Amino acid sequence: MWTADEIARLCYEHYGSRLPKQGKPEPNREWTLLAAVVKIQPTAGQACDRSDRPVQVTKEVVSMGTGTKCIGQSKMRKSGDILNDSHAEVIARRSFQRYLLHQLHLAAALKEDSIFLPGSQRGLWKLRPDLLFVFFSSHTPCGDASIIPMLEFEDQPCCPVSRDWASNPSVETNDNLEAPEDKRKCEDPESPVTKKMKLEPRTPDGTAHRQSFGSEERGPNPPNVNSSHLTAEELASVTGMTPSGARVVDVYRTGAKCVPGGAGDSRKPGAAYHRVGLLRVKPGRGDRTCSMSCSDKLARWNVLGCQGALLMHFLEEPIYLSAVVIGKCPCSQEAMQRALFGRCQNVSALPEGFGVQEVKIQQSDLLFEQSRCALQTKKADSPGRLVPCGAAISWSAVPEQPLDVTANGFPQGTTKKGVGRPQARSRISKVELFRSFQKLLSSISEDKWPDSLRAQKLATYQDYKEAASTYQQAWSALRKQAFGSWIRNPPDYHQFM
Ligand SMILES: [Zn+2]
């Protein structure tokens, strides 16, 4: 039907041809992360084909995001007009919500083909049954999925594991997507010590891994045990050796920190550094962030859907991903399964239509050319500082202004004075998605509104979110049973209208 390489190739081509230069990394100096949602649809006339021939499908990118940054808590705003989290996965998901809103408009106007069909209850829609959505990410998501056993045989030409690194917490900020700037003032970039510290911490999402990418050696061989509550050390001691005889000597690390107040990492040297299966917060620059890691967010979407609370008002069932495809980078099937749905597997008592999705996880052999690893390979002979690109690009398959380029959570070029003005809002900010939602609602005559919106007087963003009762029930079941320490924004951040 489709392969991981086909999905990756389609996304890279889309990135190359449909995204502007503005917001892309500066060549040979900056890198970025890429994510997308791809719609898969059987080619016309194929759906009823009962022969054994594989079903032919059309694949279409419906949303795309790039970005590596996340704002700190002190920069958050109560007006809903800033993007808190600009990691590519999150930008791609918000861009996907914009696409879904547009498709609901089409459905409600009964004008053109839409991905939605009328549901069985008044005002509700359902996804056409022959469609599915695949999530693509050029890298392993930050947080739990990035904690991957590292094997002895792996080719690590640039960075042999140093035991004293892990026990020296002062170096830890290097393990963060934004690290290079953090250290700039106190380090001589050319000193051997500094170099060593920069190279050692590694994250699978594009950081200092040095694997050879031969097809047989793609990614670590994951030990095959159920590890959801084991530390990586316990994991290694359970399995010890892989079938190929390699020993687990360390883990790839994530810059995402454990949620305060809960269980934490041991930070012991080597493979015992991280504890797996925990909720984590994205790193910021000094200022702590309130954004959960991409692993945690993907896990949440696998239970609550990708549409969010607002769109659930119009839907009979949540919109789930069928598969997640990862580009070429260190990635473990086992760590991905644990992070993306294993942690939620026992969540029960979800409202009708909701369920824990065991998404298919596949990896492509194709490398994203503006990823950190691609740049490092290219620049191997001329070392220089590589930095994450500060801008984020959002693209949605919508007819009007599909693009949105931001930096620090605002449209690129926004001045301090401009903040607060309507033109200083990203199209995928909370307040703008809420506007689109309200526009959709006002385009529908009131007698065709779903029951959840007619029962009470709703005004603020928070009111509308809370009124999505099945979604809220599912979210509360998920929190109670698996994600109790999830950091939630205080309610006054959702009081805007
Ligand atoms: Zn992330």
Automatic annotation (TrEMBL):
Transmembrane residue ranges: none
| Domain (A to I editase) ranges | 63-496
Matches recorded under InterPro entries: A_deamin (IPR002466)
Tell me the SMART domains matching this sequence. Answer: ADEAMc
Identify the stretch annotated as signal peptide in this record.
none
Identify the cofactor(s): 1D-myo-inositol hexakisphosphate
Q: Where is the composition biased (Polar residues)?
A: 165-176
Keyword Ribonucleoprotein assigned to the entry: answer is no
For the region Disordered, give the residue spans. Answer: 164-228
Catalyses:
adenosine(37) in tRNA(Ala) + H2O + H(+) = inosine(37) in tRNA(Ala) + NH4(+)
Q: What is its EC number?
A: 3.5.4.34
Q: What top-level class of enzyme does the UniProt entry assign?
A: hydrolase
Question: What domain of life?
Answer: Eukaryota
Q: Which UniProt keywords apply?
A: Hydrolase, Metal-binding, tRNA processing, Zinc
Q: Which family does it belong to?
A: Belongs to the ADAT1 family.
Function, in words:
Specifically deaminates adenosine-37 to inosine in tRNA-Ala.
Q: What is this protein called?
A: tRNA-specific adenosine deaminase 1
* Organism of derivation: Rangifer tarandus platyrhynchus (Svalbard reindeer)
